[in-house]
Amino acid sequence: MRRDLDDVIQGWPYDPEPGEVLAREVRARDGRSVLQIRVELGVLQLEIAGRPDGTRPHGFATYLDYLRYCAASRGQAPGGKAPPWTMDQEHCSDADREFLQYYHRRMAWLSLRRYDKALLDADHTLALMDFVKRHGNDDEYVASHEQFRGLVQFHRSQAQALIAIERRHPEEAIDALREGMEKIATHQRTWWEARENESAESPNPPLIDQLRLFEQEIRKNYAVEKTLREQLDEAVAREDYEQAARIRDLIRAQQTRARR
Prior knowledge:
The protein has 260 residues and is mostly helical. It contains ten helices and three strands; from the N terminus they run αβββααααααααα.
């Protein structure tokens, strides 16, 4: 059995455009589908479900699941109060490994326009970030991940909007983008602006600008002036609660149709 990757590498040259991720979904020898990402020094192969590396850390589906188990099963201190649980260095190293794996797979899914899969992987990364924020062992470690929260939220908002466009629901796409912009802006205010190191420049404004341009493009292409949610916000702001109730009914009916 050949152990080199010559056939794969020679048949798939590494010549990406700037910012392009070279990815493909292929059938493995045993019949399962796997993701492959072409990198300068070879090829990465990832599983499409569960952990990208196909392992079950400590018997759990993901390392995040294991960390949640550790935090939930900590011992009880005298008096019945649970002591605070924090990640040790091994936890941090293994969490970093999972962050990196999900980043590669998220970028591959976006490249392949598998936005539903990208959305799921973004949600996993955000949940892992939330856990690290609560249980990280020091501020520097937490900061090393929080600085990328805006980018992950950006990818999530893109994926969510593109799913809505594929389903021909432009209003849902706009609402998803507006929600994403608000979350990134909130992160900007609550985390980046609180940093003592004033030289640390937040990458969030350009991300918000890109989402705003996407929103404007959708409004133009689909002739959407105001979504139902925007109309609801305006009705509440002017205290027109009867109109707000009618719009809520329309939103619920819209959501019911979308689930069918």
